[in-house]
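Q: Here's a chain of 149 amino acids. Please give me its 3D structure as tokens.
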Amino acid sequence: MRTALIHEPIDAAALLQEVSSHGSGATTLFLGTVREVNDGRDVSGIDYTSYEAMAVRELAKIATEAVEKFGTPHVVVEHRLGALGLGDVSVAIAISHARRGPALDASRYVIEQLKQRVPIWKREHYTDGTREWVDPTRHGVAAPSGGAA
């Protein structure tokens, strides 16, 4: 099991290799990427920032919970911080397990818990030149501290 906040591009192939196991019959890879439209607004990029010490601890807790709940030690999670462009990978979750059901369930568990609990914030940059902080726990609603900058 490993978790990390990183500032360089995520290497999905390396994460898959890291969770590879002869005892695993299923391997999942979830990649969250920067999309060009969010809630009807054209996006040109995103800045990710975090309260790093707390985010590192909480991310490790979530991965530990997934290991215990789904019965596999083969869990790797990386979240990127900094400026990302369209198509860049912002988060990657690689999990392998003897069976596909627990591998898929563990992946969903990790991303949903990450979005709810880990203090990582994103500020979207729009093609009209504005920027806005986005609340990851509420789809389609900007965070109260948001606004154009």
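Q: Can you summarize the key feature?
A: The longest strand covers residues 41-50.
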